[in-house]
Amino acid sequence: MKAESVQQLELEEEFKSLADQWYRETGMLSLMHKKALHPAYQRIIGMGKEALPFIFRELKQKRGHWLWALTAITGQDPAKPKDNFPQAVDAWLEWGRAHGYV
Comparing C-alpha atoms, which of 86, 41, 98 is closest to residue 62? Predict the structure, then answer.
């Protein structure tokens, strides 16, 4: 197996572990800023652009609260200010497809 494939698998495993921890430890929270400040979520943001394919997969499958992380990593926000959460998720998924992440 190529070194980049091994590195990609290791990144994916780290992401999955952090995401599982984040879901487990913040599922009962209703305030997004508290969820976003969780150490596991912050570590995912710290993974940078390498985490984007994993975040988009989660967003597509679970439609979870990944928008804060996407904005932090990309510096973009394709959602309109008036968009509700499902519309914002759809805008991000469209952005992800246009940029090769979905």
Answer: 86
What does the DSSP 8-state code read for residue 65? S
Q: pLDDT digits over 31-83, tens only? A: 888 999 999 999 999 999 999 999 999 999 998 899 999 999 999 999 999 99
Average pLDDT, rounded, for the chain: 94
Phi-psi bin for 63: left (phi > 0), alpha (psi -120 to 50), beta? left
Please name which of 85, 20, 69 lies closest in space to residue 96, comparing C-alpha atoms. Answer: 69
Instruction: Give the C-alpha distances (Å, rounded to integers) separating 15 from 10, 12, 60, 84.
Output: 9, 5, 16, 27
* 8 Å CB contact between 19 and 40: yes
Tokens representing 31? 């305030």
Residues 76-97: tens digit of each pLDDT? 999 999 999 999 999 999 999 9
E strands present in the chain: none
For the full predicted model, state whether its pTM sits above 0.85.
Answer: yes
